[in-house]
Design a protein that fits this description.
- The protein has 323 residues and is an alpha+beta fold.
- It folds into two domains: 8-108 and 208-319, Winged helix-like DNA-binding domain superfamily/Winged helix DNA-binding domain (Arc Repressor Mutant, subunit A); 122-205, Alpha-Beta Plaits (2-Layer Sandwich), CATH 3.30.70.
- The protein is built from eleven helices and seven strands.
- Helix 8 (208-230) packs antiparallel against helix 9 and helix 8 (208-230) packs across helix 10.
Length: 323
Amino acid sequence: MRQGDSVSDRAHPSAPGAPDRDVARWIRRTLADDPPRARSLIVTVWGDALAPHGGEVWLAGLIRLLAPLGLNDRLVRTSVFRLARDGWLTGETRGRRSRYRLTPGGRARFAAAYRRIYAPPADAWDGTWEVVVDPPGAAPAERQRVRDDVRWAGFGTLAPGLFVRPLVDGVAPADEVPSRVVRLHARDAAGVADALPLATIAPSLWDLPALARDYRRFLALFGRVIDRFRMRAIEASDPAQCFVVRTLLIHAYRRVLLRDPRLPASLLPLDWPGSAAYVLTRDFYRLTQGRAEAHLAATLAEDGAPWPPAEASFHARFGGLRA
């Protein structure tokens, strides 16, 4: 489905549950045009698909699951080894087989990131700002770590060592902020003549034009393939394709979203494309989650043991999924 093609003009019949040729072509081209980094894609799959089911998997099953996403055996093994070395995963060997699960620290990191992915964009805001100040007396390396962490959590740099973000419930939880920093809540001074409201300069603290371009590219890339799924009854869609496209969708959305400060609507341009990106991701996730989860269970169930059911928080994603 090249840009400019009309999906409806090129539609063709497919057997129920059979792979769709247009979707298969889109997957091949997307993986070829922008091959995902193995480690980053595994983080996406673990956080999106595996963590809700306990976050534990046989390495052989993970290799099978990732093969249609362009990752070979060697890349998966190397990336999993590095995630374990960096404290995200821990593994155990049973005979010649290896099984990996999230560490407590890895689970906390996934939870912090993925809360942002599945939460709706911020709407109401009462004008309160959260302020973070560099830890007093910190060494340069610690200051740099703090700055990296608070920027990842959606703060903008107001001045050297001073970071701000709107305080909106559910947008960026407090546990994303590193310890040993000074944290304040602040509002504009009322009644002070000639005082400049922070909201008037806040958008310049983030590169919103670059984010908007990335969101529009995301919408253009995924809009057409999602239209293809909508043309058919979801029961007729191939479960493997549902899982692969859902994974690529969440992977691409995560890459943009985790650079987005998720500002409330009152601080954003009227044509802000982040809202449309959220709706597209939410709608496709809801549409395909049953088929994608069926593929996950069929691929990872081993030795007659069923794949564990998803925890309750999974069904609360995007405002609620069908159980």
